[in-house]
Amino acid sequence: MLDIDVVTCYNMCMSAAKLQKIGNSFGFRVSKNDLEAAGFDESFEYELIAEKGVILLVKKRPHSTKWVFKDTALSKEDREWLESNLEDRNS
């Protein structure tokens, strides 16, 4: 459920939109001017967040975390921890 306390709108434009059948799907047709005014760009991907009666389209953020795995030997401390009996620590 969306819990929005404050909604701030800058340069807001309002237009009517009607839900239309498009092939095997449904969609809203939005004018190019409205999309440009809202800052949408076809070079980006967007996430759709749906809640009862509300649809939000949000620009997808790039993942900032990149996992890097290195094939290195375990340190002495890591090896001791892995080989220890964890049940003894809780008593």
Task: Characterise this structure.
The protein contains three helices and four strands; from the N terminus they run E-E-H-E-E-H-H. The protein starts with 18 loop residues before the first strand and ends with a helix. Strand 3 (46-51) and strand 4 form a beta hairpin. The longest helix is centred in the C-terminal third of the chain and has 8 residues, at 76-83. The chain has a two-stranded antiparallel sheet. Strands 3-4 form a two-stranded antiparallel ribbon. It is elongated. With 91 residues, it is an alpha+beta fold. The protein has helices at residues 32-37, 76-83, 86-89; strands spanning 19-22, 25-28, 46-51, 54-59.
Helix content: 10-25%
Could you describe the largest sheet, including whether it forms a barrel? 2 strands, antiparallel
Number of helices: 3
Q: What distance lies between the first and last C-alpha atoms, to the nearest angstrom?
A: 42 Å
Category from helices, strands and their pairing: alpha+beta
Q: Would you identify the regions where 5 or more consecutive residues have pLDDT less than 50?
A: none
In spatial order, strands of the major sheet run 1-2
Order of helices and strands: EEHEEHH
Question: Mean pLDDT score, rounded?
Answer: 78
Radius of gyration: 25 Å
Number of strands: 4
Shape: elongated
Q: Bin the strand percentage.
A: 15-25%
